[in-house]
Amino acid sequence: AQSVTQLGSHVSVSEGALVLLRCNYSSSVPPYLFWYVQYPNQGLQLLLKYTTGATLVKGINGFEAEFKKSETSFHLTKPSAHMSDAAEYFCAVNPQGAQKLVFGQGTRLTINP
Amino acid sequence: NAGVTQTPKFRILKIGQSMTLQCTQDMNHNYMYWYRQDPGMGLKLIYYSVGAGITDKGEVPNGYNVSRSTTEDFPLRLELAAPSQTSVYFCASSLFGQGMGNTIYFGEGSWLTVV
In chain B, at which residue ranges do the beta strands (DSSP E only) sit? Predict the structure, then answer.
């Protein structure tokens, strides 16, 4: 069965520092890949997704992610963290042909002033 | 833009009670989903629907029922609530189905506690 692993349930960075949230998936066939963000007491909002084409995907709020097939990874980055980036981030995959998203366990991002 | 609307936002249930979580979307999406989110875990699919009158089980359907009488509405019913059903429930919708990388849109969640 498809699985998604997010390394680190909590990540803390200083304001202005690089944000790197890691995501690896298990699949012999590359799935479709997503990053969602969840602000406190809110629903999930799509940050970005990869389906086909360019492997570096740009999303909202300055985030981007790179699909690396050889590493089965889809890590999320942002060059300079902002206080408003504090939230929970979920990596998810959509196995091709499956009517569902498979989510990682989430990474809570804290931004230190 | 209302998008996906869920009610209630918070609810406390006693063991053995039943209740219905309401979900409606105004985007004319064909596909609708119910997920649950447990602490420290990702979301898991409970049920989904590909159109009015058609529903199917997801990964964790036990203890739940759904119906889809209209395109807009997809209520989730909990029968005989158990503490294991304490969770945050998210309704979601998409114009096209998953399996092709289509974006799904989530509601704001319903926090349910069973005591």
Answer: 4-7, 10-13, 19-25, 31-37, 43-51, 54-57, 64-66, 76-78, 87-94, 105-106, 110-114
Chain B residues in contact with A44 by the CB 8 A cut-off are 43, 90, 106
CA distance A43 to A87: 11
Q: What is the full per-residue pLDDT of chain A (113 aa) written as tens digits?
A: 678 999 999 999 999 999 999 999 987 777 889 999 999 878 889 999 998 888 999 999 999 999 999 999 999 999 999 999 999 999 999 877 777 788 999 999 999 99
Is-contact A35 A59, C-beta < 8 A? yes
Question: Nearest CA of chain B to the CA of A68: how many Å?
Answer: 17
